[in-house]
Design brief:
Strand content: 15-25%
Shape: globular
Number of domains: 1
Largest sheet: 4 strands, antiparallel
Number of strands: 4
Structural class: alpha+beta
Order of helices and strands: HEHHEHEE
Distance between the termini: 33 Å
Length: about 110
């Protein structure tokens, strides 16, 4: 398991890389995309997500299990729960943008903007 200092350093590194590469959040513009995409097609933007907050309105931050080992009673969303949540957010807000904001060994945080 990664220590907190390691996770912070990794997320700063990912933010620097995102800035260098000009990464932008994944744009979910059509509901059928949800059923066609792999579990986590979202760019890891690390601490560069603070810049996304300046461009778009943050709707929520989602805590997700990326290992596939989590269950429906865990605090992190399973892949199926994530997809259901994205459907609900799309129905409520229309097109949304999604990026990995923080990533650990087994879970990650997704920022969601409209």
């Amino acid at each position: 398991m990664y220590g907190l200092e390691t996770i912070i350093a990794m997320n700063k590194e990912r933010g620097d890389l995102a800035r260098d590469r000009g990464l932008t959040p994944f744009f979910l513009k059509h509901a059928p995309q949800i059923d066609e995409m792999p579990p986590f097609p979202f760019p890891n933007m690390g601490d560069d997500c603070v810049e996304v907050d300046k461009l778009y309105e943050r709707i929520t931050t989602l805590f997700c299990d990326k290992s596939g080992a989590g269950g429906p009673d865990d605090p992190s969303l399973t892949v199926d729960q994530l997809l259901d949540t994205l459907r609900e957010l799309f129905e409520t807000h229309g097109p949304i943008r999604i990026a990995i904001e923080e990533e650990g060994q087994f879970q990650l945080y997704l920022g969601v903007w409209k």
